[in-house]
Specification:
single chain, globular
Length: 200
């Protein structure tokens, strides 16, 4: 049975998605290190690939879903949301549509969407890092289930807005990237964002 789980959790599809989830979390953690335009551009590229890779994740059943734990705290979510909102100042609000056939929509914020996706990705990564095939199986199941019901739609809505910002000629800032001394930034922002995010 363990061998069967290992074939799933160490499949090429899962490994590729997990790597992208890590890249996404690192990018959002280090949002201040990017210019506004660079962050929008890299987010558009990365979220597009993340969505496609999520479609390839295996469709599996959970072993013990009651043991799935959430690791992202409200404080961490707020920090991410506030940091992204500051970076996207002037462009954060947009009209969100969950059911395009219904013809209705509501105002939403990109920063909340980024923070929600960050929460799902970091929770997934935390479970995967526990290392047991059974827990990793349930992490994949939880991630796929949330993708179908929530964060996948968030990604699609955000991509739509980012595409518009890039290709409509929006006046995105190019000179607001923040440089840090080694001890001059919060711990949650530490990392080498620019080196991790070349063109995908």
């Amino acid at each position: 049975m363990t061998d069967d789980f290992e074939k799933i959790v160490y499949s090429d599809e899962v490994i590729a998605f997990t790597a992208l989830a890590g890249k996404y979390c690192n990018m959002v953690d280090c949002v201040a290190a990017f210019s506004q335009r660079d962050f929008v551009d890299k987010s558009l590229r990365l979220l597009s690939i993340l969505y496609v890779k999520a479609l390839s994740l295996p469709q599996i059943e959970p072993i013990d879903p009651d043991l799935i734990e959430k690791t992202v705290t409200q404080e961490e979510w707020d920090e991410v949301c506030n940091a992204v909102a500051a970076k996207l100042a002037g462009f954060d609000s947009y009209t969100e549509t969950f059911d395009p056939l219904a013809g209705d929509g509501a105002m939403a914020s990109l920063s909340e969407g980024f923070a929600d996706i960050f929460q799902d990705m970091k929770d997934y990564l935390s479970l995967m890092q526990m290392g047991s095939p059974e827990m990793m199986n349930d992490a994949i199941w939880e991630c796929v289930n949330n993708f179908k019901n929530y964060w996948g739609q968030r990604v699609v809505n955000i991509i739509r807005v980012l595409h518009h910002l890039i290709y409509s000629g929006a006046p995105l800032k190019t000179d607001d990237a923040r440089t840090f001394e080694s001890d001059d930034r919060p711990s949650w922002e530490r990392g080498n964002a620019q080196s991790d995010f070349g063109d995908e």
